[in-house]
Amino acid sequence: MAIRVNGEDAAAPEDARVSLLDFLREHLHLTGTKVGCNQGACGACTVLVDGERVLSCLTLAAQADGHAVTTIEGLAMGGDLHPLQAAFIEHDGFQCGYCTPGQICAASAMLEEVARGTPSYVTADLSNERITLTSEEIRERMSGNLCRCGAHNGIVDAILQVAGGDAR
Length: 168
Ligand code: FES
Ligand code: FES
Description:
- The protein has 168 residues and is α+β, with helices and mostly antiparallel strands.
- The protein is 33% helix and 10% strand.
- It has helices at 20-27, 72-75, 83-90, 100-115, 135-141, 152-163, and strands spanning 3-5, 8-10, 46-49, 52-55, 68-70.
- A five-stranded mixed beta sheet has the order 2-1-5-3-4.
């Protein structure tokens, strides 16, 4: 088996203790994924495994064996920015930028969750299959990703714009 990272196969590390975060950064040199707390509290290390967001610091690389991993490097399409990347720039969704890769990976998966009709803690009408993506929904769904610079308002605006809502 192999771990498919951004469309290319990589051999899983021999040491079963290696985290997915260290595998991406130290073994594959994909340093777009950031190390924040390294204990599951900040979301900086968020990547996608089979399209679902995971905290790579809490995931063993061995757990991704046979699965498809997408990092921030894989979200950009060739030379073009992902729409979320462009929207983050437009809305000042980052300041130091350290949390940004994790924010964007989480946002891309979050939008898929909304499109599937997956409710959140603040979804008022659980009988409605179509979720209205409000600022409150975005804040709840992105609450696992911390930005110490306080760029949260820009992040919400960027996600709203990509989702087709109105940015403030
Ligand atoms: S580095 Fe993984 S959650 Fe903070
Ligand atoms: S932009 Fe600095 S931590 Fe988010």
